[in-house]
Amino acid sequence: MRIFLGFFGLTRSLRHTIGSISTQIFEPLAQSGTEAPRYGHFHLPRAIFNARSGEYGLATDPTEPALLGLQHCQVDAQDPALIADTLKIAQSQPDRYGDHYASVRNLCFQLRSLNCLWSMLEPALTEQDWVAFLRPDLRYLDRLDLPRMVDGLARAGADLAVPAWQSWGGLNDRFAVANARGARAYATRVSRLEAASTMTAGVHAETLLGFTAVTERLRVARLSTRAIRIRANGHAARNDLLCFGLQSSPQSAAA
Fold first, then answer.
1. What's the pTM?
2. Is the Cα torsion angle 22, 124, 177, 97 positive or negative in sign?
3. Helix 102-121, helix 180-187: angle, nearest 10
4. How far apart are CA 143 and CA 67, in angstroms?
């Protein structure tokens, strides 16, 4: 059995999260001796401007992906032209986030990143392999023992496992563990964007994943594993702290 690690999105805070990724994800894999190739696709903006997250003009570091020790990596400039068609589809429906489609635009980049990641992974995967889809800007608070987790999911007949918290009427899309069938659906769900956004009157990350899981008839399991978003300035997302009853970002998982 192989468990592919697929990192996607932005590496905006990787210098703050690499400690937890190493401790909670890499170490259990190394201890089990499981073969775990590391892949990554990222978009690199010149700077991060996100009023919703309180990030204003923070410079990005193009060398950050090297911290993950990836065997296969692709980094693309965050060019709006890359998501123009996807964004046009999303903007044909109401803005579910209410921030002038800024969050929708970010989601479109994330969906593209996942789609590109799948193009890298697909030629190497067999039906017996599993994939862990991981955001590098998350601080993982709990041990993600992937070999044990995958064994349990396979025994239960699950195709996809996602966090049980913050589902917002769909499925939490922060990270996931999937067999080959579930991985394809998770990574290529941008193809379901138009149908999902029409049905739900606007695109939303969680409802899109939920729609995809239902449409693809995936057997979904829920994970209690916690993770919080870390901004480029090192601050934790307030909503995540509140979700877990935390006053501040735990430093024990950061080292």
1. 0.93
2. positive
3. 140
4. 19
Residues 161-189 have a mean pLDDT of: 97
Residue 23 is given by DSSP the state I
Per the CB < 8 A criterion, the answer to whether 27 and 146 are in contact is: no
Which residues 6+ apart lie within 8 Å of 214 measured at CB?
A: none
**CATH numbers and ranges of domains, the chain:** 3-243 (3.90.550)
**Distance separating alpha carbons of residues 150 and 28, to the nearest angstrom:** 13
Instruction: Identify the pLDDT of residue 62.
Output: 87
> Are the C-beta atoms of residues 17 and 230 closer than 8 Å to each other?
yes
Q: Report d(CA 62, CA 101) in Å as an integer.
A: 26
190 contacts 229 by C-beta, under 8 angstroms: no
Burial of 74 (0-12, 13-18, 19+ CB in 10 A): middle
Q: Residue 186: its pLDDT value, please?
A: 98
pLDDT band at 56 (very low <50, low <70, confident <90, very high): low
What digits encode the pLDDT tens for the residues 16-48? 999 999 999 999 999 999 999 999 999 998 777
Q: What is the DSSP string of 167-193?
A: -TTS---S-EEEEHHHHHHHHTGGGGH
H helix runs in 97-160, sequence order = 102-121, 146-156
DSSP 67: G
Q: Give the H/E segment covering residue 130.
A: strand 130-134
